[in-house]
Amino acid sequence: MKICVYDILDYEEPILQRLERQLDGELVWVRGPLTADSLALAGGCGGVSVLGYSRVDRPLLEAMAQKGIRHISTRTIGYDHIDTAAAKELGIHVYHAHYAPNNVADFTVMMMLIMLRKAKISICRALVNDFSLDGLMGRELRSLTVGVIGTGKIGAAVIRNLSGFGCKVLAYAHHPDPSLAGLAEYVELDQLYAQSDIVTLHVPLTQANYHMIDTGVLGKMKRGVILINTARGQLIDTESLIDALESGQVGGAGIDTLEEESGVMHVHVGTRIIDKRSLLYLKQFPNVLYTQHYAFFTQEATESMVRCGLQSILDGSQGVPTPCEVQ
Description:
- There is one protein chain.
- The chain is of the alpha/beta class.
- It has two domains: 2-99 and 299-317, NAD(P)-binding Rossmann-like Domain (Rossmann fold, 3-Layer(aba) Sandwich), CATH 3.40.50.720; 102-290, Rossmann fold (3-Layer(aba) Sandwich).
- It has eleven helices and twelve strands.
- Helix 4 packs across helix 6.
- The chain is globular, with a radius of gyration of 21 Å.
- The model has no long low-confidence stretch (mean pLDDT 95).
């Protein structure tokens, strides 16, 4: 089977080369995104694979269907850049990537520790030979309560990581995980907000939870709460977060993904003018750690995502069930 792979990044190339030799498929390599124009490069292909740089909307899916392309994968966990409802109507199978949750879970706990120990300020001072202690007194995780929203694979891994620190863990999920009994206490969201010193998000983005963290919700949290987001940027209303940081309602934020990151993230901007005012303003706070959406970025995870992107299309085209298919 022939697969057209779009959005190819440098670090994916050796993985794709190795998988092309291993798997029963022929690859068409395209560095740019999938668009109405670049779809012509997928002639004769039964499937296409993309990253989040490609916005796969209904017109594009209709054009794919006309070409007989019935399978599309994204080499990412999230798939909100694909109109899955339109794909289902058109009979196009959509697949997303899977990887072990350890990378994001470890990164999440690292962010908590960095925020608690004010490491951003310490590192910036040390770079200019300022080794003073003023303003650097931190807190210990064992003395705090952490609220984990979402206990799927990543949220559950975060809770297991936290079990070694001796902190109290509250959790909220639509479907509680019985394997976490003894490690976390499931509570309602309002109780989690009111009692947590740290709140960390681990839910997929849906229409229902868009901007779930807004001014009203931030007001329900403890004053000085630390907010961690390694999930999806649109879960937080950025302007509400900025207001809460300025007022001191939020004592710090570890942000790996932000709503305004489109067009900037994973790019060396250099001297180009950036029209992302909220992004630039947010990252200047001394109590905000803002990273480039790379909590996922490990050797193990990138290998798994690229493999999922190809194998799911090959399996799906042969009628082999795959857990990567979006239902």
